[in-house]
Every structure is written in structure tokens, then in C-alpha cells.
């Protein structure tokens, strides 16, 4: 297999935020990058030359990349094909074709795949190629390519509950028991609480000068649903006046409203479209942004279903059970098969509070690691903090404040201002 020209185009298109200076992409096309003769299997560490040593993450011993059998060193590695394989989730797609979707649980995937998600390798590859061109042509990097861009974050809130439902009690009690927090579990199961936390979040974000994306459930809600729906899906109805008014207020305040499809709506465009229309009716205007509930997701089916339902921008690409870069990239890109615009999700509240039993210091450090990576590589990604978790039942608002402070400290830009969410086209987003 020779490197398809497609791989180069796909990588350059996705990485355009790192190549904003006119002519940047054409410069990279002139590099003498090796061509992969045949696809490899598995993963390998590749050492960059000394002049690119600073592009290797501090905690790593090289670039962790899709294996290529002919590779002896960095000169014989096909960087375009390696970057495209990551960006397009080639490993996960081939696994899904054989074994079915993992619905965004990393633990179901090979151990050897996990380091591929630890860093934004695709961004690092493009930065490496920039550097390589400068070495070949003896031109300072900022003169040739400009500064690395400011990192972009799409802050998002998936609205799974606006009141303390039986399903939420059971789910969170299960996590408490799993983490051996028995008293918290009992308190959670039995205590009363108001999960209407919109105003707290809105105030917090306004104080930091941020707006965010709010993904709402558009299903039928209520009690007359099958047990699985009652357990797995939200129970509110977006048509209820108090909730519809909240959607409208958020939108009027500069926030973006999106769809959070039901647990079972991950491949059915007709159902997805009905749910989308329910949100639009409550909101009084059209929406095009989406994240799948429970990150229920298939590479082969979900983006096609979203597109057919009239949606355009998805932020599902991430894992339920670990933070990280599911396709090795912190880039908003157009998925070629479906035409969906995809922004990866790299961090979620429950990564820090449910799936790992961390203390506050460790939680803050995990947030910092993700933000540092994004800053270092000029990345763009999305982060989830659920609406209800600002209630003291959870008490996860403090980590969110640390996140907001960290964004400010590192000069992050909001996706609702400069990214696709702002309503501009993908080609002008940064
Ligand atoms: Zn959800």
C-alpha cells in the first residue's frame, strides 16, 4: 500500500488550526516523508531526532504511533499515514467491524492501544513536520508557520436529570458502593435534593467570561416507558414550560443548545430526528449540535444517523471510563464518510469522581494534565460537566471551578466564541 494522497489531505485539513499561515500546508507537502509499503498491526514507539526532542511529552519516551513494519527510525516512518490512522480511528474501526461497537468503554480495547490515547499525537506529528520543514529549509519556525494557536475548549453540560429520579439514585449509589463509599451511597439513595443547578453554573461561567453547550434529552419522558428506558434515559420532558423557558434563557444568554439522544438512539436517524425536533420546538429555533447519552456510539453508524437526522456537529468521540484523546488528536475535523463535524471529548466529570476514586489533589492534577496537553499542542476539544453534579449530593462543582481557573491561566479560548459552535463554518473556526 502506498500512502494515499488522501491521508495527507485528511491530516492537513484536520490540522489547519496549526497551519493557519498561508502556504503552511504546501510547505509540509514538500517534506521527504517515507511511504508505508504495507499497513502494520499494533503500535510502536518512534524516537524523533534531537532537534524535535521537545515535542515528545515529558512522561513519554518517544511518539507512540501505529506500527509500520518497514520502520527503522523516524526517517523511514510514514508520518502522514500514521497521523491519518490515528485521526480516523483505524484500529477501533477494524475492531468494531469484527466484534461490534464498544460504546465508548476503553477497557474493552487492547491494552497496547491505551497509550495512543494519552496524548494528542496527531497534533504533535504536525508540529514535528513543521519543525522538520524548518530544519530542511533553515527558517525560524515562527517565521515559517507563525505561533502555535491558543487552545480551544468547548465546555459542555449533558442534562441527564433536572430532579432526583429513581434511576439517578440507583446509578449514583452503585458508583458509591463500587468506590466503597457506603455512607455516601446511603445518603444518595435516600436523601431529597433539587437538581436544578442551571443558575449556579451560568453564574460561575459568566464570572469567568465563558458560555457553554447544553445538550438536552428530547425523548418522551415520564413513567409510562419500558424499564430499560426508565433506568437508562432521562425522565424530564423538554416541553414542560419551566424547562423550555430554561432552554430559551440559556440560548438568549449566548449558550448553545444541543441534543442528547436517548440510550437506544445511536443509529436510528428517524428517532434522532424526532428527538431533535422536540428540542427545537421547546427552544423555538434549530439546533445542530449533539452528544450521545452514555457515549453510545458506533463508528460505522452513529455519525451517519446524526447527519441523516439533520445534525452537523458531534462531541461524542471520547471514553466513558478514562480521560484522553480517543483518536490521538485534539482537533475538530470533518469525518469524511458522513460529513459530520467532530470535536473529540477529552475529559468528563465522572472520569475523576466515579471511575477513579481520586482525592482532590489528584483530581486537580488530572485536569491540569489535560489542559497542559491541549495548550502545548494548540489543541481543540470538548469537556463534559453534567448539570446535576453541582448539587452537594455530588459536590463536583469545585473541580469545575479548578477547570475554569485553569482555562483562564492558560489562555484558552471558548469554542462557543471561535469554534464551530459559534455558528461560523468549520473553515473559519480556529
Ligand atoms: Zn447523558
How would you characterize this protein structure?
With 430 residues, the protein is of the alpha/beta class. The chain has 2 domains: 5-145, no CATH class; 152-428, TIM Barrel (Alpha-Beta Barrel), CATH 3.20.20.370. It has 17 helices and 12 strands. The strands form 3 sheets. Strands 3, 4, 5, 10, 11 and 12 form a 6-stranded parallel beta sheet that branches. Strands 6-7-9-8 form a 4-stranded mixed beta sheet, with no helix packed on it. Helix 13 (302-308) links the parallel strand 6 and strand 7 (313-314). The protein binds zinc ion. Zinc ion (ZN) is lined by residues 158, 160, 260, 293-294.
CATH class label of the largest domain? Alpha Beta
State the major sheet.
Answer: 6 strands, parallel
Structural class based on helices, strands and sheet pairing:
alpha/beta
Which ligands appear in the coordinates? zinc ion
* Average pLDDT: 90
CATH topology value of the largest domain:
TIM Barrel
Please tell me the total number of domains.
2
Rounded to the nearest angstrom, the radius of gyration is 22 Å
* General form: globular
The counted number of beta strands is: 12
- The name of the CATH superfamily of the largest domain reads Glycoside hydrolase/deacetylase
